[in-house]
Amino acid sequence: MKDEQTIRLPEHIIEQVNKVAHESGQLTGVLGCEPTDDAQLQKLQEEIMGIPKTLPPREQEVHKTRYGPDDGYSLTLEIEG
After folding, report:
1. What is the dihedral of CA 46, 57, 12, 30, to 10 degrees?
2. What helix, strand, coil percent values describe the chain, rounded to 5?
3. pLDDT band at 71, cuts 50/70/90?
4. Whole-model pTM?
5. What are the domain boundaries of the chain?
6. Cα 41 from Cα 20, distance rounded (Å)
7. Residues whose CB falls within 8 Å of the CB of residue 20, separated by 6 or more in sequence, listed in order
8. Angle separating helix axes 37-50 and 11-31, nearest 10 degrees
9. I need a surface site. Which of 4, 13, 23, 25 has the fewest CB within 10 A?
């Protein structure tokens, strides 16, 4: 008898997969063909860069210091502290 195991993904992973599929479909509509990995990456980067703008000013400053989108350099939490 064959042992079968079901691997259950966490809900947030399923939501992310669904979002990527949705965005890919939107890009297909805009481009008129399947989006390349580069096109998907560019779209994702645009979304990620927009996230800090939704944060309160203090959290924006912490985000900039930690991830360094302004100067391209990031600090570790040890250096930042």
Report:
1. -20
2. 65, 0, 35
3. low
4. 0.44
5. 14-80
6. 11
7. 40
8. 120
9. 4
43/64 Cα distance (integer angstroms): 20
pLDDT, tens digit, 9 for 90 and up, residues 12-42: 888 888 888 888 888 788 878 887 888 878 7
- Cα–Cα distance, 18 to 26 (Å, whole number): 12
Quickly tell me which residue has 């800090």 as its tokens: 52
Whether the Cβ atoms of residue 34 and residue 26 lie closer than 8 Å to each other: no
State how far the Cα of 12 lies from the Cα of 29, in Å rounded to an integer: 26
> Who contacts 24 (Cβ-Cβ below 8 Å, separation ≥6)?
34, 35, 40
Residue whose entry in the numeric block shows the structure tokens 């965005």: 23
Q: Which two three-digit tokens encode residue 10?
A: 């966490």
